[in-house]
Amino acid sequence: MKQLWKLILAVSAAASLAACTSTPDNTAQVEDRNATSATTGANATGTQGTTTSGIGDGTGVQGSNLQGNANNAATNQAGYNPLKDSRSPLSRREIFYDLDSFVVKDEYKPLLEAHAAYLKGNRNARIKVEGNTDERGSREYNLALGQKRAESVKRVLMLLGVGEAQIDTVSFGEEKPRNPASNEAAYSENRRCDMVYAGE
After folding, report:
1. CA pseudo-torsion sign 139, 105, 36, 53
2. Domain count, the chain
3. Is residue 61 included in any domain, yes or no?
4. What domain range includes position 141?
5. Other beta carbons within 10 Å of 156
6. CA-to-CA distance for 190 and 164, rounded, in angstroms?
7. Rounded mean pLDDT of 140-161?
């Protein structure tokens, strides 16, 4: 499974880089959201920093049992819905990002594997991945970044075997903040993707 995840990350990173090469020198300019200096596309999309607020640190998720729990819970008990069980990893629906990044961090590997296992075991289930950003930057920039974040989650789920028809993506940019404050702690909460199952 570790080798599969490395392959998924490598393919995802390659696809991300290929999507960003629109200028002859393969360096796309990204809007300067701190008003100090321009950042290149490689820095904006390819680097993974640390999460300053500790949000999305994977607390409470044990990778070794996630897929088994997701599949067993769905099939072992009549009427049981693992999507509504707060003890199930499927109850976690957020992926958090670094500033100006749409790279899915390794810490979300167990979570995405659990959702992929559920979706593969329930081919009629559909999920919508909603990309969000913090308030900094223009509306257009944030809508584009939110879409890239949603697509990055979709790409990982598909590499884990989920059918494309089961996944929809949408960007809300800065329009759906989880925390309306204007500080780094709030920004960290708002740089995210939410996963919403159809019918919820």
Report:
1. positive
2. 1
3. yes
4. 50-197
5. 24
6. 26
7. 98
